[in-house]
Design goal:
The chain is of the alpha/beta class. 38% of the residues lie in helices and 15% in strands. α4 packs parallel to α5, α5 packs parallel to α7 and α16 packs across α19.
């Protein structure tokens, strides 16, 4: 594969520019999302909330709306909305980015919010009156009311002040909730003056106690027609990044093969149970092309929140590493961030938080049950490694070396070295922190090895006569694993043979393809591999 992704005519892919004005003026590659701005502007509900994971383009989208409602039509030349009946009427726009608030102390937070409000008001020649946030909000609305003007209000990353302090003292968080409730009550009181309101965040607002005052918002987070409002659909990826894709086509790599591989790494986020549309992470795609199309984990490099991973250790590990995790649709509407302070997280709380953070996404929906799973190989590897490292007694800083050697052994069909790496992996855990002896637990941990290593891993693969515990396809080798707890490796191998698990993969066999069948026995006492056997 070539070591470059651009041709000379391809625009710059900017991942660190959040101002729409600068983005367009610098002639960066912009994936046109103005169709959704048009929909929102025409939507009679007017007041909206949108939840998406961090680094998914919320700030750029808010900035685009800012320019749109200020009537700056020249920035939208050639974009979707420029060819519609949208009037580009100019409104006062109050744009608040809560990720920039200083929340080291409670008084700092309120002072910085007050300063942010005053700065926005000064842009329109307004001096705010009052000593409290609520009074200043009242003053802002009254001044615009005198001028007979409707307001556009954009609040980006509304939950940032709270999520960053979730593990601090309860009194701090309670005061934050009270202060912000009065802020949102003021907005609700004057909602008749709003031409448009969009509030974005990571966590859904429904029934969130810090947001209880704002019960008149339309939550579009899971609406099917806004499923791809952020991120890149497959069609957008091929259209806007086509020149970069073309640079990867060669005698050995077809366009389809390249796209399929990129899709397996960075696509797969599904945000509506009622839509099958999936999207690519825009920052990961940008980093991928800016790093010469190297298939690496850019998820951790984007500064995504580790809150979900840090809190995930309080729940059953095997529940989190299953290939699909069922939960109720209602779990997303009853989730409350403030409950996390109790330290007693339910399984549905953890799954909800992992979904909001982008570690899990919708895989299937059977009303009212949603099935969650990892969106792609990048996130699966990142989450599994970050989570499992918290259970490890070893330094994981050299884990990339371990992964490289493990993949090499699997690709070469080297069962001795592959099993040595698996034994090293299980030896690295402090099982006092886990304490599970059932086969499902060992299987979850075992499956995570291959997820971390970025391999094509099929967990509990169903055949005509049963389910193989794990099937790995790597290079010219098909590995079929069967696991036993306090059993024998011979019994595990006998099950593979008796059930004929390998027959399912006969269509993949070529002259160079080899099947390796591995039986592994774990000890419930030592929590380690007690024996293993391999036959081909």
């Amino acid at each position: 594969m070539k070591n470059y992704c651009y041709n000379e005519d391809m625009k710059t892919i900017a991942t660190g520019v959040f101002s729409f004005n600068k983005f367009i003026e610098q002639d960066n590659l912009y994936v046109d999302k103005t169709m959704y701005a048009y929909r929102l502007a025409k939507d009679r509900r007017k007041l909206f909330f949108l939840s998406r994971p961090r680094r998914f383009g919320k700030s750029l989208f808010c900035s685009m709306l800012h320019s749109l409602f200020e009537g700056n039509r020249k920035l939208f030349k050639g974009l979707y909305i420029d060819n519609t009946d949208y009037s580009f009427e100019s409104y006062p726009v109050i744009h608040l980015d809560f990720s920039g608030l200083d929340n080291k102390r409670e008084d700092n937070l309120l002072l910085s919010l007050s300063a942010m409000l005053k700065h926005e008001a000064q842009r329109y020649g307004i001096t705010l009156e009052g000593n409290t946030i609520a009074m200043q909000m009242d003053s802002l609305f009254y001044e615009f009311q005198k001028q007979g003007k409707e307001i556009v209000l954009l609040i980006d990353e509304f939950d940032a002040p709270f999520t960053s302090k979730i593990t601090d003292s309860p009194s701090f968080s309670e005061n934050i909730k009270l202060s912000f409730n009065t802020f949102y009550q003021a907005i609700k009181k004057h909602s008749g003056m709003l031409r448009f309101l969009l509030i974005t965040g990571v966590v859904k607002l429904a029934n969130l106690s810090i947001f209880s005052a704002m019960n008149n918002l339309a939550d579009i987070s899971m609406e099917p027609r806004y499923a791809s409002i952020l991120g890149y659909t497959e069609e957008e990826f091929e259209e806007y990044f086509g020149e970069g894709i073309d640079e990867q086509i060669s005698e050995n790599v077809s366009r389809e093969q390249f796209i399929d591989k990129v899709k397996s790494y960075y696509d797969g986020y599904r945000f509506s149970p009622d839509s099958d549309v999936t999207v690519y992470n825009p920052v990961s795609i940008g980093a991928f092309f800016n790093n010469d199309c190297r298939f690496r984990n850019y998820w951790d490099m984007t500064g995504v929140s580790t809150l979900a991973v840090n809190l995930a250790v309080s729940t059953n590990l095997s529940n989190l590493l299953d290939t699909t995790c069922p939960t109720s649709l209602s779990a997303f509407y009853t989730f409350d961030l403030s409950n996390l302070q109790s330290g007693k997280l339910s399984r549905k709380d953890v799954l909800s938080l992992l979904y909001f953070s982008g570690y899990l996404t919708i895989q299937d929906f059977d009303d009212p049950i949603i099935y969650l799973g990892f969106p792609n190989r990048e996130v699966a590897g990142s989450f599994s490694l970050n989570l499992l490292s918290r259970y490890s007694t070893e330094d994981t800083s050299d884990f990339e070396i371990w992964v490289k050697e493990f993949r090499k052994a699997c690709r070469n069909g080297d069962e001795k070295n592959a099993m040595e790496k698996i034994e090293e992996y299980f030896n690295a855990f402090s099982y006092d922190l886990i304490g599970k002896n059932d086969e499902k637990f060992f299987h979850s941990i075992f499956h995570a090895i291959f997820v971390i290593a970025g391999m094509q891993a099929i967990s509990e693969d169903r055949g005509l006569r049963g389910r193989a515990d794990e099937v790995i396809i790597e290079g010219d080798y098909i590995w079929i694993f069967e696991l036993k707890v306090d059993g024998s490796a011979a019994d595990a191998l006998h099950q593979i043979e008796e059930k004929g698990y390998e027959k399912k993969y006969s269509y993949l066999k070529t002259e160079s393809t080899k099947v390796l069948k591995v039986g592994i026995s774990f000890s419930s006492e030592t929590k380690k591999v007690s024996e293993w056997k391999c036959i081909s």
